[in-house]
Design brief:
Length: 80
């Protein structure tokens, strides 16, 4: 019986850690700014989606206008 040898599992690299030890680490201020930017974008998307859903008010309306929903959400985000 032959045993298959698999390489050891390697955890994925975190986007916040440098790719190699030779690279300088990001300052805490840069990391905090990146996190704040992502939180802002997420909340902006959530508000835009909620606004579009409230505007349609019914499942039937959502299905009737389904192919235009993404455009509406993008338009709503750009207005903010």
């Amino acid at each position: 019986m032959t045993r298959l040898m698999y390489p050891p599992a390697v955890p994925p690299a975190s986007p916040l850690t440098p790719a190699s030890p030779a690279e300088p680490a990001q300052s805490d201020g840069v990391i905090v700014k990146e996190i704040e930017d992502e939180v802002f974008l997420s909340s902006s998307r959530n508000v835009a989606v909620s606004s579009v859903l409230i505007r349609h008010r019914s499942i039937e309306s959502l299905f009737a206008n389904g192919k235009h929903l993404i455009k509406e959400i993008i338009r709503e985000m750009s207005e903010r």
